[in-house]
Amino acid sequence: MAWQALVSCALLGTERQAPPALAGDDALGRLLGQLDGTDREGDLLRAAGVVALWQRAGQELLDDRQPCPPASAADSVPVCGVRAARHLERLLQGQNVELLPEWLEQLAAVGRRVPAALLPALLDVGARQMDVQPLLPAVLGERGDWLARQREEWRYAVRVRDEAQWSSDSQAERLALLQYLRTVDPARGRELLASTWDTELARQRRAFLAVLAIGLSLEDEPWLETVLDERSAETRAAAAALLARLPDAALVHRLRERALNVLRGTLAAGRLVLEVEPPEDEPALRRDGVTGAALPGAAVRLGEKAWRLCQMLAAVPPATWCQHWQQSPAAILVAAQASEWCDALREGWLRATLCQGDADWAEALLSLYPDHASHTAALAALLPAARFEQLLMGLLAEDPERALLILGQAQRPWSVDLGRAVLSHLRQRAAEDKSLESWASSALRGFARWLPPQLHDEVAAGWPVEARHWPRWETALNACLERLRLRRVMAEALRADA
Amino acid sequence: MNTLSAAQVLALAPDEASIKAARGLARPAKWLTLGHDEQALWGECKGSALYQISVEPGEPAFKCTCPSRKLPCKHVLALLLLAADEPGLLPAAPAPQWLLEWQAKRAQNAQRKAARAVAATELDPEQQAQRAVARDKRASARQRKVEAGLEELERWLRDLVRQGLAQAQRQPLRYWHDMAARLVDAQAPGLARWLRDLGSIPASGEGWSGRLLAQLGHLFLLLEAYRRLDTLPETLQADIRGRIGWTLGEADVPDGNWVRDRWLLLGQYTQEEEQIRMRRAWLWGHDCGRLALLLDFAHQSQTLTPLAAPGSWLEAELGFFPSQYPLRAVLRNACALTALDAAPPGWADGAALLDAYAGALAQQPWLGLLPARLDNVVPARSAANTWYLRDSAARLLPCHPGFSQGWPLLALSGGQGLPVFGEWDGRQFRPLGAWVDGAFVAL
């Protein structure tokens, strides 16, 4: 009370109000009673100083009314060593963060987990970087799982325990559950989703449908067909795209029948000639995802008709055309170059190839058109290791520009042989005193991510240091070597823990 | 090879930009030569020119031939980082000529300095008396300056409450900072910092008027006490001078106040304001059981005296400045020790900390911070995103709003109680370190 009176007086100012008299019988009151009222400002400040100190010395803490949340379970897996932890810390600070997935894989391989103090930074990075997320369950440990539950932004990393999590208020946690179920019991995952489908928001529906790509099979077809009748165009398109991945789905059969009429091939003098009559807009086609709307992630610009053509082709397994015309993918792609619908055809086949995971078509698309922008890496990923290497070795000999373009974008480790072949080609280029194009300079740095780290010393040697353009090469090479060395050092530190 | 840990190296850096630059240089491609011997590390770094870097990590002492005025410069930091992260890159080798020259020059300087110190003690009585007179003259000149500054501050305070806090709330920040600047001129930097802190209260939201009045009253009592300084015990006089901002040096430590012990560095906190960096480092003495505060200041262009990283042990002498509640000290003759398995005793819960704080205030009413270890607290977060420490009696100690390590502390705790060390300022706790399975972790 005394304090409130002092504050009110101070707010108004002593020129408008005299300080309150605060004399009393207790020790504080007797002390305050010594103020005689002759010095308004001094009295107010002295009294404030005394009462504030008295309060400060006697203050109490608030009670926590919440029950204490459950603590983390004990971890049986040990954390990584100090040197490895330092490497992780530096990766998480954003230095060479693209090497984080590789580091996490190796950590899991040596049977260690992330130290507790670094978990918050790792969960932050994982929330932004999709390629990190699938690697987390193996390295977070009990502590990381517990921590992920403490913050909404980190719920994506919560380990899945039971279906009760489907009623969680965290969308990230529900997505994680659906992802998990689709890996171990796809039908159960679909049933769970179908059970609450009507109450989900449109945005969430699309996110859930994206997860259904995991463990997708014909068993999912009947339910996905019902989704094709929904109101939201984007939801319908997502369901149609899923069905298009199933070669035996009714949707694929329907579109294949139509496509065979839309795109015809005839042999003239042993060469394939293509004739295109793009589909018109009609409700049945719209329902199957052939809408004429631009597809996301496309590098080409097409008109509405061309998009319908592209969407239709995207749903037809590309092997269909090879069987139908008895031609190789490469021959078909070359034939398309003569068509006025060339771009739409290529984009459609690209999508179909990715959709069906067709390695033959992927190889043909890569060797004819090495640059598919954001899709190059996905195409390269469709090839088995031996076939990928064979293709690249061949291209390096015939058309090295193409090989380097593909290697600059593919996201897969190289064998020692491929690494050596690429290096000897690059040395030769440098020796011919060709200037280093800027794309090649950044590609060289990028190669360090996929070259086997044990090649480090070999990479460093044998360069034509006398060449006129060498200084530019040297800068790029040093960046590459530094990264390669970092990968080797990081791997060594982790192996020392094993 | 005697090297610093990466954390220790980063603690040496004069600013964030230096750290960033040093990380870029901490890779072998940037270095023409690298090497080490028993005492020193060295390297030649490719920058705009080829720079030669010499470091003796023990002290630490360093030299670089680059033109940067930062101390240590990015090249020195980069060399130390390399040595910390990848010691294998610095082979043992005979020292190059330029390093030997630097070492010779340093030895010469040290000799000269020692010779000067000897000369000072060997002065004849007359010279000593002359020096004492000069010293007293300087002290009384300062005293007059401070007294004038304090008088002005009192008038300013009286004006403020005469016109009312509501009026003061409408003042721009300059109103507070101008008074602070005048106190800097009056050689009362402690009060100047206090004034700048006051300036942030009117905009600090609900309850600001009470918080401001409490500080103003507190400050006014200090002015009153200074006026009657002669009537107070000597140790309290020292506290009052200290709060005003009298600079203290080794010479102000009475001979009997030196304590030789093995000290654990418990945590440090560096803050920057008005181009001055201030570092608080807390130590605990293994045998004496005392807590101590090392306070260091440096202008922005200068570097703070390098200090070992939190969690390190030092064998050293600490000289405590006179005080009713002695905490502040200076360090001398320090050398690194291997870690001991010991930690300061802590308070069982928040109530015990508050009792201790009340006891300390009774001795030294202007005590700024009480260092404390709490034995068993769990970090907790309110819906409003502020951090608390929940003690074993389910009471909440609010954390300082500037405390940014809440999530890492929570991760370290795993929801279990753990011992936490930090500073209690009477309202908020700033955690600086914690013990996980008996090992100290700096926050």
Give the overall form of chain A.
extended
As residue ranges, the low-confidence spans of chain B are: none
Please identify the structural class of chain B as seen in this structure.
Answer: alpha+beta
| N→C terminal distance of chain B | 28 Å
Query: Approximately how much helix is present in the residues of chain A?
Result: 55-70%
Oligomer: heterodimer
Major protein interface: A-B, 57 and 57 residues
The neighbouring-strand order within the major sheet of chain A is 2-3
Strand order of the largest sheet of chain B: 12-11-10-13-14-15
- Shape by Cα distribution of chain B: globular
Number of strands of chain A: 3
The proportion of residues forming helix of chain B, as a percent range, comes to: 25-40%
Strand fraction band of chain B? 25-35%
Structural class of chain A: mainly alpha
The biggest beta sheet of chain A is recorded as: 2 strands, antiparallel
Task: Write up this protein.
The complex is a heterodimer of chains A (about 500) and B (about 450). Chain A is mainly alpha-helical and about 500 residues long. Chain A has helices at about 1-10, 25-30, 40-60, 80-90, 100-110, 120-130, 135-150, 170-185, 185-195, 200-210, 220-225, 235-245, 250-260, 285, 305-315, 320-325, 330-335, 340-355, 360-370, 375-380, 385-400, 400-410, 415-430, 440-445, 455-460, 470-495; strands at about 60-65, 265-270, 270-275. Chain A is built from 26 helices and 3 strands. In chain A, strands 2-3 form a two-stranded antiparallel ribbon. In chain A, helix 1 packs across helix 3 and helix 15 (about 305-315) runs parallel beside helix 18 (about 340-355). The radius of gyration of chain A is 33 Å and the shape is extended. With about 450 residues, chain B is of the alpha+beta class. Chain B has 12 helices and 15 strands. Chain B has helices at about 5-10, 15-25, 75-85, 95-120, 125-165, 165-170, 175-185, 190-200, 210-225, 235-245, 350-365, 405-415; strands at about 30-35, 40-45, 50-55, 60-65, 260-275, 275-285, 290-300, 315-320, 330-335, 370-380, 385-390, 395-400, 420-425, 430-435, 440. In chain B, the strands form 3 sheets. Chain B has a 6-stranded antiparallel beta sheet. Chain B is globular. The mean pLDDT of chain B is about 90. The interface between A and B is large, with 57 and 57 residues. Strand 1 of chain A pairs antiparallel with strand 12 (about 395-400) of chain B.
